[in-house]
Design goal:
about 25% strand, about 35% helix, four-stranded mixed β-sheet, about 120 residues, Transcription Regulator spoIIAA
């Protein structure tokens, strides 16, 4: 809170969005960095505890991502695969996509261009 009683906005936010049965959609917003990593890891773990078919992560509103964010995406992918849950980051902005490309981690993830595209891919045929 500043001297005028105004609280600055949080640097990041994680919210659950409506989704079809068996799917959890989490929206990440803002700066996903070392400070946000524990909260991101916790929300991914909470989602997995529900034993969904898939977890989709909407990253369209991420404004910054450091190596901690990349590590959490890769950790979640490995953990969810081991549990039989599909993990799908979606709507990657350049601040997320470029580091994933540079590290070749993008090759390891099942990424969708949009949340809608992810949900279409996950829909039963």
């Amino acid at each position: 809170m500043d001297a005028r009683g105004i609280r600055p906005p949080d640097a990041y936010a994680i919210a659950e969005r409506p989704a079809p049965d068996g799917v959890v959609v989490l929206a990440l917003t803002g700066e996903i960095d070392v400070a946000a990593a524990p909260a991101v890891r916790e929300r991914f773990a909470e989602a997995l505890e529900r034993r969904p078919q898939a977890v989709v992560v909407d990253m369209a509103d991420v404004t910054f991502a450091d190596s901690s964010a990349l590590r959490e995406l890769l950790r979640a992918d490995a953990t969810m695969r081991a549990a039989g849950t599909r993990f799908m980051p979606a709507a990657l902005p350049p601040v997320v996509e470029r580091p994933l490309e540079l590290t070749r981690a993008l090759e390891l993830l099942d990424v969708a261009p949009t949340v809608d595209a992810a949900l279409r891919q996950l829909a039963p045929s």
